[in-house]
């Protein structure tokens, strides 16, 4: 009973995803104003061939600053979590 | 708990190649796919290889945690500092003040497909380097801390 139920759920979920995927179209998005702006002006404004880097580090620099801060916070969290293990033994290697 | 001699020798041989490839990805972030995050992760992979191949005591003799932590902080400070210099020059935060200026990384790029020149991009290469330094130190120190935890649990 449990097994049949799981198979049924998998089939329904697969059909759900498959029907959505059949409706997708590729290559012709509706709104391309922003993409066109980046492609037309990116090389000239930021003097960079790689448009993705231009967007990530120039047009959306704030986003990357937040990403860097998230990484820094994650590393500080890991360091705090493992510090107690090291400190309890009075390790001289910091 | 260090690995066998074969693993250690392989790590020694591969370490240089991995680090050089990672630095290449960081430096060419504004020309080829990749950039600071990806290149920093590649370099940290080299550090992880050495950390996994050798024992904790040997690794802690080679790399200090404070150095890696300072490296990570320096990367973040350099990233925010380059963005802040633009304010000092009277423009907006994150303005690309070096692009098309003719100085460092300041060559102009023609529109359309072109072979690419390393000396372009304005502040983007500097930011790629900063983020690469940060990711390198950050990922390496995470692995180092986790290895220290394993060592302590095994002893107890």
Can you tell me about this structure?
The complex is a heterodimer of chains A (about 90) and B (about 160). With about 90 residues, chain A is mainly alpha-helical. Chain A has one domain (about 1-85). Helices cover about 75% and strands about 0% of the residues of chain A. Chain A has four helices and no strands. Chain A is flat and about 60 Å long. The model of chain A has no long low-confidence stretch (mean pLDDT about 85). Chain B starts with a helix and ends with a helix. The longest helix of chain B is centred in the C-terminal third of the chain and has 32 residues, at about 125-155. With about 160 residues, chain B is mostly helical. The chains are: A mainly alpha (about 90), B mainly alpha (about 160).
Poorly predicted sequence stretches spanning 5 or more consecutive residues of chain A: none
Report the count of strand segments of chain A: 0
> Helical amount among residues of chain B, as a percent range?
55-70%
Oligomer: heterodimer
Number of domains of chain A: 1
In percent, how much strand structure appears in the residues of chain B? under 5%
